[in-house]
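Lab notes, practical 5.
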Amino acid sequence: MKISLKWLKEYVSIAASPEKLAQKLTLAGLEAEKINAGAVGGDTILELEITPNRPDCLSYLGIAREVAALFNRALKEPKTPNLKFPRLKPDIVLLDKKGCRRYVGTLLKDVKIAESPDGLKRHLNAIGIRSINNVVDTTNFCLLETGQPLHAFDYDQLEGGRIIVRRAKAGEKIATIDGVERSLDPSILVIADEKRPVAIAGIIGGKETEVTPKTKNILLESAYFDPVTIRRAARKLGLASDSSYRFERGVDIAQVKSAAQRALSLMKDLSGGRIGAHQDLWVGKEKIRPKPFRSPGMKSTAAWAHR
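Output from the prediction step:
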């Protein structure tokens, strides 16, 4: 995993040299394989090897917690303002409750798709991620910040305005956002609308519902998908992504909604959208609630949002 030191320092203040930081992280079990001090803008990039038993460290906040503990520093977690969700719920159905234990879907209306601010682009470009637009870039930023994968659908391209989490049917196909048509089978979990799959759950989105400059309304997905189901599908399809990498190792089911709220808050700032509907479907009687980590808070939005 690539870590920008400039970005990391937004969550924890450290004065140690990159070499000292790399040594400390390696001794703590997060091996620093490479230090690249020649990054754009005078940044330094650490390449860390995250072992499978530490999915909590597949994010900037996860690494920042480790650094805060190692150097006895305060963790500066981002604070998200309280969002008001309307009673109206989007049409979301969980048919496969084993493959998807939690699904948070939020309709954001009247968005303005545009180029991302320079600060956001610098964050992503520093670790080799190409900027696409303000909405998609925000989902990538939040995935890296929190470790929770997110996906934005063009809501108006969903047949019937529905989201159905189910297994693929024999013979179904999907054209994914990389331009490849892929054959599916019932072992693969998909996100579908009324007529066809629109994403391979936890792995990659479909071409027909991707966010484009013409998009006006989006459905933001934040979910918990079964690690074994995602791992088997990724292997069968020979397809891996930043999302599948995290889902295969297990994301934190308790932060599925908070990660969505973080993304929605940033998207509202950048795109001017408004929340039109919201639903949080959680399988099981017992709901895990995150325990607050008491630390000094950051501003309610990212530092780059208004640059």
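Observations recorded by the TA: Residues 111 and 273 are 4 Å apart (CA to CA). The domain at 91-282 is CATH 3.50.40.10 (Phenylalanyl-tRNA Synthetase; Chain B, domain 3).
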